[in-house]
Amino acid sequence: MSFNPPDGTRYVLPDAAARRAEVVATLRDLYRAWGYDMVEVPALERYDAGHPRQAQSFKLSDRDSGVLALRSDFTPALAQLVRAEHPAVAGGARRPLRWQYSGTVWHAIDPELARTREFSQIGLELIGVSNARADAEILHLARESVRAVGLQPRLEVGNPGFVRALLDAAAVPDDRRDGLADAIDRKDRRDLADLLSSTPGGGMPDAERARQSLLAVPDLYGGTEVLEHARAVAPWPEAQREIDRLAGVLAEFEDASELMLDLAMARRLSYYTGVTFRAYTPDYGQPLLGGGRYDGALLPAAAGFSIGVERLLQATLARFSAPEPAPRVLALDDPAARVLREAGVRVVRALHTDIEEARAEARDLRVPFLLVAGELEPVAGVAVDDDERGDLTALLAAAAGGAA
Amino acid sequence: MSAPSRLTLALPKGRVMEQSLEVLRAAGLRLDTGGGARALRYDAGDATIIEMRNADVPTYVELGVADAGVVGKDVLLESGSQLVEPVDLGFAACRLSLIRPRGAAGTVQRVASKYPRLTADYLRRVGSGAEVVKLSGNVELACVSGLADAVVDVVQTGATLVANDLEEVDVLLRSSARFVVNRAALKLKHETLRPLIEALRGLPGSY
Fold first, then answer.
1. Angle, to 10 degrees, between the axis of helix B15-26 and the axis of helix B190-201?
2. In Å, how far from its chain's centre is CA A72?
3. How many domains does the structure of chain B reveal?
4. Which of A140, A168, A174, A254 is the most exposed place for a label (fewest CB within 10 A)?
5. Closest Cα of chain B to A285: distance in Å?
6. Which segments within A309-368 are labelled E, that is strand?
C-alpha cells in the first residue's frame, strides 16, 4: 500500500493551502466587485462524446451502465447550466449573465513535463452579450487578476478570426486548416511555406495573394502598430472586419501598455471566434491564464477566461513565500479564547487540562502563550514578542472591561 | 516599453553549439565563451548560456528556464513541446529515415530508435504493426546485431549506412536547426528577441 497519492495528483500542506485559499479569496472578491456571481456545477458529468475535452476526461461507469466523466473544463459545464436555467439566453436572447467559478478539474493525460492530472481553476464568464465593451471587460479583469495577486501582468492578445478570414480567402480546404493554423501559431514559417505549397485550392490570383498574406501572419506581433501592418497585409473585407474588432476592444483601454498584440494566435481555431488572450508575468515562463470569445461554440454569445491556480501560486511563490503564521495561543480558558479568535488571533484549544501537561503541549506546538484563567503565560523555551503580548493582553482586558 | 532585457539561451553541447554561437554572433550578440573548460551555465556577455544535451533543450525552453535556444527540428518534434520556432537556421541538416539491412525484404517486426514517438507515429501512418524499441545511442547496432529488423535514425551523409551495409528505405522528415523561443519570453522580452529573430532570419542559409 503506497502512501503517495495517484500519479499526477498531490497533497497540499498547510503553508501552500493557506496561500492558495488567500489567492482564491482575493480573486473571488475582485470578480464579485465587478458583479460576477458565484455558481457551482457538479464535478460528475454525464459523458458526452461531443465535449471539447472528451479525449482528456476521466470516465467512470455509473450503476445503471451509463458513463460519467469527471469535470475536465468549467466552460462547457457552465454552458450546460445556462441551457438548463436560462434557456432564453441559450437560445440567443441578449441578456448578460456574469458568473464566476472555482474548483477542481481532472485531465486523463500522461503526467509529464510539470503537468498534473488534478488541478484547480478559477475564472469567469460573461454570457449573453457580444461586443467590444464585453471583450474589453474580460480582458481588463484578466489583467487585474494578475495584478491582484501582486504580480506584474503582460497580456498577449489576438483574434483567431483574422487567421480564419485569411484561410477562407486562400481557399484552404477544411482538412488542411488545423495544420496551417498550428504552424502559424508556432510562427514556423518554414513549415507554413511547405504546407501551403502542398495545399490544394491555390491557383486563383486572389487565393494566391491570400497565401502570400498568410506567410506574413507569424510576424504580426508587437504593439498597436501591428493593426496597421495587418490592414496592409490583408485587404480582404472579412479580414479587415476582424482587425476592426480587435481595434475596437483596444480603444476601450485608457492604458494599453501591458497588452501586446499577436495576430498569429490561432490555437483552437474552430472554438475561439473573437478576441483571445493569455497572461504572463516577468520571470515566469508559462501562461498564468487564458481565455477569449467563443460565440457559437457552446452558446450563441459568451467570453471568459480561466486561471490555473497552481501555476499562479508557483509564480507568486517565486516572489513572496511568507510561511503561514503559527497559532499564537494555547487556551485552557474557552471564553477568553473566544475573545481572541473574534479578533482574528489563531488560538488552539489545549488537549490537556493539567497545567504541566498543557505547558508541554504549548512547547511542542511552538506556541508562545498559554491562556489560563484569563491570563497569558509566556511559554518557556519559545521566543516571545513583548509587543504581541501587550496587544493580546489589551484585547483580553478590553473584553473583561466590557463585560464588567 | 521596458529596457531591453537579458536573454538566457539553451544550447546543445557539441558541434551544433559552435555553429549556434557563430550565427548568434553574426546576428549581433556579443558572446564571449572564453577559452577551455566552461561551466554548464555561464555569463557570455549579451546572454547567459546553458549547455545541455540536445534532447533537453525543448524542456528548458518550454518551461521558461531558458528564453530561447537552438535545437534540431527532429528533436523538437520528438519532444512534443509547443514552442515558437520563428527561424530555420539551416545548418545541421539531416533526414530522419527508416533504415534496414541492404536488400532486406518482408514485414518489419521491430524498429529500434532514439525517436520512439516519431517512429510510432510513422508506423501508425503507414499501417505497420511493428513494435518500437527505445535506444539511447548507436542505433545502427540494433540492426547489425539483430536486435531489430529496422531502425529509425538520423542520416546526414549516409557514410555510416554504407559502412554497415544498411540502406535508407523511407524518409520520415527533413530536419535542420531551429531557433526556438519560449512563448512568454517572446512577449516579455520582445524588445530583445524580435530584433534578434529578424537578424537571424537575414543570415545566409536561414529562413
1. 100
2. 14
3. 2
4. A254
5. 4
6. 329-331, 347-349
The grid coordinates listed for A40 are: 457551482
CA distance B49 to B41: 6
Which of B50, B180, B183 has the most A C-beta neighbours within 10 Å, making it the best mutation to test the interface with A? Answer: B183
pTM of the prediction? Answer: 0.88
Q: Which strand ranges, in their side-by-side order, compose the sheet holding B47-52?
A: B41-43, B47-52, B7-12, B68-72, B177-181, B84-88
Q: How many CB pairs under 8 A join A and B?
A: 56
ipTM of the complex: 0.91
Q: What is the pLDDT of residues B52-97, one digit of tens each?
A: 999 999 999 999 999 999 999 999 999 999 899 999 999 999 999 9
Phi-psi category of residue B191: left, alpha or beta, with phi > 0 → left and psi -120 to 50 → alpha: alpha
CATH of residue B73's domain is 3.40.190.10
pLDDT single digits (tens) B99-136: 999 998 889 999 999 999 999 999 999 999 999 999 99
CB pair distance less than 8 Å for A189 and B88 = yes
Which residue, among B188, B192, B193, B194, would best test binding to A if mutated, counting the most A CBs under 10 Å from its CB? Answer: B188
C-alpha cell at A231: 490592414
| Any domain includes B26 | yes
